Please model this.
Amino acid sequence: MKMNRTAGLSAIAAAIVTCLPLARPAAQSPATPDQVVAALKQNLAESQKRLRQYEWIETTVISLKGEEKSRKQQRVYYGADGKLTKVPLAGPQPQAASKGGGRRGGRVKEQVVENKKNEMQEYMEKAATLIHQYVPPSPERIQKAKDAGNVKLLPQPDGKARVELRNFVQPSDVLAIDVDSTAATLTALSVATYLEKKEDAVTLAVGFGTLADATNYVARTTLEATAKNIRVVVENSGHHPLAR
Model:
């Protein structure tokens, strides 16, 4: 199945993660839920200031049942108004689906393919809307999770720690943030949630990188919608100072 509208899907997928702000956390892992919440709030408040100094290249790849359907690259930076700006880079365009020679059978097949594309796009939009409630994590939701006793700090080997926030947006979901307390950096963020039914699982895995000035950034994000066999990978690379 060839996909039209891949540009729209790429925009939906990219919007899930590129707004995720990161900043260098405190040198030591918080020891209590109150300290965890305070550190996360501070992190969210400081992060955008760091990334506004840079521009980078974002590559979005959408796959269906393991087969790559689209690949898109964009130049990304924060504009003077503070909003994230994305400029598409030239690249191969998605191929148009066959018209089936104008025969009735071809038209029926074309309609079936179009319906499937519309269904997948609608599904992606719902997944994007849901994930936006997790990334970036809302300070208000973090505080709410803490007040409900749903924040846990789990020590990990080699000076690492994991902050888990359960029932963050809906019952039985989990938002997990991994921290390297030795290097004072965020290393990963993951979300396990679902659309409408728990069987309709959606997961998000975010890996981070560190620039020369110790600024953390989202290096790679993978969205998995297992019920529809959809996988979206977004990679950010080539960071350099933004020329104003």
Remarks:
- Helices lie at 6-17, 33-51, 104-131, 139-147.
- Residues 29 and 208 are 17 Å apart (CA to CA).
